[in-house]
Write a structure and sequence with these properties.
The protein folds into 2 domains: 88 residues, Endonuclease Iii, domain 2 (Orthogonal Bundle), CATH 1.10.1670.10; 102 residues, Orthogonal Bundle (Endonuclease III, domain 1), CATH 1.10.340.30. It is built from 12 helices and no strands. Helix 1 crosses helix 11, helix 2 runs antiparallel to helix 6 and helix 5 crosses helix 6. It binds iron/sulfur cluster.
């Protein structure tokens, strides 16, 4: 399955656009319950005004809210990215930490956000479970986990550690392009032959 996905998505990287580790961290926080495309439309104005943790840490929340409004949950996200920027500026000298424990100690940063930043910015071995990874892993029969953490444990037991970051991007791209919610495009899927879901769908349709 990994070989098929690697062949299908040879250039899989995060779709979020950024120019520093801090900008990636902010973009990932903004991407919760929002598309990467929408975040990419929003962040140029945000990063033009607040390009660093130090600058964003001193921002007024209402000013940030106006810029990020279209990302959804904008009040909470504005509060979180300012608090996160303050943490990065004051506790880490303006540099995003690379370790999971330090990342998860930042305001607004949970396990998934930390994993994305670790894999994309620091090439660390981390597998992030977002809505696409969660769905595709279940359809491929790779997990029966009911929480992102359980799915992560199942996937990291199956995928070699050096592939965790790439596997995250392959599964996300596959979920966006072919194994879509709510209806997977099984007839045109390169994993059709080894995935249990087409046979389950066929049985249900008999
Ligand atoms: S065969 Fe269907 S369910 Fe399985 S991974 Fe492909 S699109 Fe998803």
């Amino acid at each position: 399955m990994l070989a098929v996905l690697e062949h299908a998505y040879p250039h899989a990287v995060t779709a979020l656009e950024y120019h520093s580790e801090f900008q990636l961290l902010v973009a990932v926080i903004l991407s919760a319950q929002c598309t990467d495309a929408r975040v990419n439309m929003t962040t140029p104005a945000l990063f033009a005004k607040y390009p660093t943790a130090e600058k964003l840490a001193r921002a007024r929340q209402t000013d940030v809210e106006k810029i990020i409004k279209s990302c959804g949950f904008f009040r909470m996200k504005a509060k979180n990215i300012i608090a996160c920027a303050r943490d990065v500026a004051q506790r880490f000298g303006g540099r995003v930490p690379s370790g999971r424990e330090d990342l998860e100690s930042l305001a607004g940063v949970g396990r998934k956000t930390a994993s994305v930043v670790m894999a994309a910015a620091f090439h660390a071995q981390a597998l992030a479970v977002d809505t696409h990874v969660f769905r595709v892993a279940h359809r491929l029969g790779l997990t029966t986990g009911t929480t992102p953490r359980q799915v992560e444990e199942d996937l990291t037991a199956l995928v070699p550690p050096p592939k965790w970051g790439d596997a995250t991007h392959w599964l996300i791209m596959h979920g966006r392009q072919i194994c879509k919610a709510p209806t997977p495009q099984c007839p045109r899927c390169p994993l059709n032959g080894c995935c249990p879901t087409p046979r389950i769908i066929a049985r249900l349709q008999r």
